Amino acid sequence: MSYVVDRRLNGKNKSTVNRQRFLHRYRKHIKKAVDEAVTKRSITDLDSGESISIPRRDISEPHFHHTKGGKREIIHPGNKEFVSGDRVPRPQGGGGAGGSGSGDPSNSGEGIDEFVFQISQDEFLDFLFEDLELPNLVKRQLQGIESFKYVRAGVVNDGNPAKINIVRSMRQATSRRIALGASAKRRLRAAEEQLKLLQEQDSILRDKRKEDELENEIIKLRRRINKIPFIDTIDLRYNLHMKQPKPTSKAVMFCLMDVSGSMNQAMKDMAKRFFILLYMFLKRNYEKIEVVFIRHHTSAKEVDEEEFFYSRETGGTIVSSALKMMRDIIVDRYPTEDWNIYGAQASDGDNWNDDSPTCREILMKDILPRVQYYSYIEINPRRHQALWREYEAIEAAVPHFSMQQISEPGDIYPVFRELFQRRPAHS
Amino acid sequence: MPMTERNPISTGSDWTFELIQDYDREIGRVAAEFGLDTYPNQIEIISAEQMLDAYSSVGMPVGYNHWSYGKHFVSNEQHYRRGQMGLAYEIVINSNPCIAYLMEENTMMMQALVIAHACYGHNSFFKGNYLFRSWTDASSIIDYLVFAKNYIARCEERHGVAEVERVLDSCHALMNYGVDRYKRPYPISAEEERQRQKEREEYLQKQVNELWRTIPKPLGKLAHEDVIRFPEEPQENLLYFIEKNAPLLEPWQREVVRIVRKIAQYFYPQRQTQVMNEGWATFWHYTLINKLYDEGRLTDGFMLEFLQSHTAVIYQPPFNSKFYSGINPYALGFNMMQDIRRICENPTDEDKKWFPEIAGSPWLETLHFAMQNFKDESFIQQFLSPRLIREFKFFSILDDDVKRELEITAIHDDPGYRYIRERLSQQYNLSMNEPNIQVFNVNIRGDRSLTMRHVRHNRRPLEKESAEEVLKHLRRLWKFDVHLDSVQDDKIVECFHCRESGFEVSTPDPDKELALIQKA
Fold first, then answer.
1. Which of the two ends of chain B, N or C, has the fewest CB atoms closer than 10 A to its terminal CB?
2. Is the reported ipTM for this assembly greater than 0.85?
3. Looking at the 3D structure of chain A, how many domains does it have?
4. Is residue A141, in this structure, part of any structural domain at all?
5. Domain-located, residue A76
6. Alpha carbon of B82 to those of B49, B75, B104: distances in Å?
7. Cβ contact, residue pair B44, A7, below 8 Å
8. Which chain A residues have a beta carbon less than 8 Å from that of B177?
9. What is chain A's Cα-based Rg?
10. Are A264 and A303 members of one domain?
């Protein structure tokens, strides 16, 4: 006798715990692999997982076993030309005729000594952003207590008397009365008509019995209609209010990027990677955060994420245009008492020479007093230009301003980490 | 073949639960006609993801948590995703009722094949073979696994995951040395296990305390005891020895050692009967499905698909093929089972000379006898026929590190048959393939160090790197120094020491060490 059981609906993630333990045990290895991966990856890959390889010997489970040497005799199938007593040279590399050489062949492509597996995007990002934190989130703790506000959320059948929605309740009552009384009313009307016809007839011809009957029915129906309650408990409707969390601490991140002609494709790519990392980092760590993307050449423009990363522009460079725009947006939309403001700027360092002092002025006077933190990365393998020198003066003067230079894609991640290193709570 | 009227159970390739039941009923009916004695079946339909889960827990339906299972899962998943590995169509568990997992992706033909293979083939093997009968208790294994899972989860709560993991790591390293090869263990029962577990903890600790008493005994006795070795006989079951004798293990740690040991013991018969078990199951899926076809219950299309899968399963690539990775147990097993039937039904003169006692005997009885009373090693020694050796074109290569070249010692010809059969049988002798390592001595009056002995067979040395790792694990359980002596021709040729200060390999002074052996 057999039983057939459908287990497909049972949980399919029986191995989750074991998998997590494995990842935990080898997190150092995985971390290293993730760090390497991020420098090699292209932007569009960042929302996929990553395949991680770990040296196989690091994760092997040891057992006693034999090694080469001694005397060994093995039976193989498929003899073609050997006869007993034949001698053949020992195959090179030990594999070949080796029996206990634990199936080394095949598996070409990846090195045999690597244990390769896949981690998901979430896991990848967890490893990537481990021990990174937005600096000095001083105004209010994001993880702090949230306040709530009540918003209307429709109408429901239950509630307390204070929240009765009168219009909806009355409408409900009316329709109920119509529905319940309709047939009685119809019959009442018919009966009254009949009675009227009857009463119009000559009194001798009248059917007295029928008249009584009709009159009785009319009384009965009237009574029945009157019995339908004007309003009933089932008619009552209540307004529903729901608690909605109101962020007490909000942050906005400004991403400024130079897309002018002097930025070549490789530089733009690097800048993009930096912002993508930044953006994903923010999205991941802070739910209540807004990001403003400003790109500029000779004039600045606020764009959405898609356009920021994926559209191309050419032209000269006036950095201060972006800074002015940032300033205006801050004044317009992000009052400093409500928002923590962060700025990140990427550029190749090119600027109209007489514009750089303007940049410093705007930053020092209008922007830096308003922001929590401002970072500048210069993507430039060559020597620095005027903008860098101006910014160096700012860095010396303002503690919450930092700058770094990136010259090749491999630099991005270390710089990123440097900029956003976990810092002591008050610095 | 007489023409039978076709009355197929189904014609399409999609399965339904009703069809699975219909096929199962029909296959079960035919199996009973052939006298297959099985546990009741529990057929579970699972998805591919669940199959991956089942894979990584080594086929145990319930398992305790450990990172190594996660590692298997991750690597299987990777291979599967990349398409480097197909999933097994089935996993079957030696339990009562016998649990078989069928994948939902299978076609109807595949489900029927798997039912015949697992639910009637493997199932009857589990129930009939002497190793399984005497070493495993199918009715209690699931209960025991549940007990083990819960126990280990409780330990994790109490002592922390990391602590438990360390003990498990060490036990896993010694898992192959956690089986009794000759003694038959008591069947395990979860209920009893729970009741006895507490008693055992206390009792065990007392035993251990007794062994490690530090209060000196009267002087007169001491001289006598000096000569007595502990253990008196070398012990092959390292985990058992540790469970009972390790001086400083906590009671819960002893129980963890015991759990790993019990599970190792449960899987031991499977490792010894791979060829027979797969051969038997393959033989029966082939025979049962063919019988149903002869009865007209299967369509021609079904049969073609079936034969294609079947031939793929029993394909044996030759030694120089790039697909070759040793002898395919399905191929060898299936062909041997078929061959036994042939010897019974149509013996040649050669067969009559080689197998006088079975040539011409009723095949069904002979085959059952062979299934019930052998393991791979003895099965091959007893039943591998010259004809099959010729068909497989077996030949034997001797690799001796003192000679420059490899030597072909025997091939599939008259003088070679017996030699090949003997060698092939040895190839399936687990105790020949795993290094022979036993507990030899414990210095109970001195530094409490544990000395193990590795007896080299055919001068084959231990792999040092892994030996070092395993000895470290052993030291973690024993908590005092551990030594391993490699013995060849009654001489100690190599010593491994795992001390608190670190690991060391030394070559001993031969004369001094020899004296110790002689005393022993």
1. N
2. no
3. 3
4. no
5. no
6. 14, 11, 20
7. yes
8. 64
9. 39
10. yes
Q: Which of A16, A76, A113 to mutate to test the interface with B (most CBs of B within 10 A)?
A: A76
Q: Do A64 and B467 touch (CB under 8 A)?
A: yes
- B268 burial class (0-12, 13-18, 19+ CB within 10 angstroms)? buried
Tell me which residue has tokens 């196989």.
A56
Question: In chain B, which residues have their Cβ closer than 8 Å to the Cβ of A88?
Answer: 397, 405-406, 408
Q: Which of A15, A69, A79 sits opposite B395 (nearest CB)?
A: A79
Q: Report the alpha-carbon distance of residue A244 to residue B267 in Å, rounded.
A: 57
Are residues A189 and A325 both part of a single domain?
Answer: no
Rounded to whole angstroms, the Cα distance separating B242 from B255 reads 11
Closest CA to A32 of A61, A55, A15, A64: A55
Residues A22, A51 within the same domain: yes
- Closest B-chain CA to A25: B67
Q: Mutate which of A13, A26, A56, A79 to test chain B, going by most B C-beta atoms within 10 A?
A: A79
> What dihedral angle (degrees, nearest 10) is formed by the CA atoms of B29, B34, B38, B41?
-30
Is residue A191 a part of any domain in this protein? yes
Range of the domain at A187: 161-240
- Which one of 1.10.3210, 2.60.120, 3.40.1000, 3.40.1350 gives the CATH number of domain B435-519? 3.40.1350
Test B67 with A51 for CB contact under 8 angstroms.
no
> Is B415–A73 a contact, with Cβ atoms under 8 angstroms apart?
no
Same domain, A236 and A252: no
pLDDT in tens, chain B (520 residues): 455 677 888 888 889 999 999 999 999 999 999 999 999 999 999 888 888 888 777 667 788 999 988 888 888 887 777 766 666 667 888 888 999 988 888 889 999 999 999 999 999 999 999 999 888 888 888 899 999 999 999 999 999 999 999 999 999 999 989 888 766 555 556 666 777 777 777 777 777 766 776 665 554 444 444 556 788 888 889 999 999 998 889 999 999 999 999 999 888 898 899 999 999 999 999 999 999 999 999 999 999 999 999 999 899 999 988 889 889 999 999 999 999 999 999 999 999 999 999 999 999 999 999 999 999 999 999 999 999 999 999 999 998 888 888 999 999 999 999 999 999 999 998 877 889 999 988 888 888 899 999 988 888 889 888 899 999 999 999 999 999 999 888 888 888 999 888 888 888 765 555 445 444 4
Q: Which chain A residues are within 8 Å of B392, Cβ to Cβ?
A: 77-78
Kindly determine whether residue A74 and residue B397, on different chains, have CB atoms separated by under 8 Å.
yes
* Cα A167 from Cα B239, distance rounded (Å): 80
Same domain, A385 and A300: yes
Contacts of B470 (CB under 8 A, 6+ apart): A62, A63, A64, B173, B174
Residues A22 and A53 in one domain: yes
Domain ranges of chain B: 17-129+273-307, 141-272, 320-431, 435-519
A118 and A257 in a single domain? The answer is: no
Q: A235 with A360, same domain?
A: no
A204-239 in b/e burial notation, b at 16+ Cβ within 10 A?
eeeeeeeeeebeebbeebeebbeeeeeeeeebbbbe
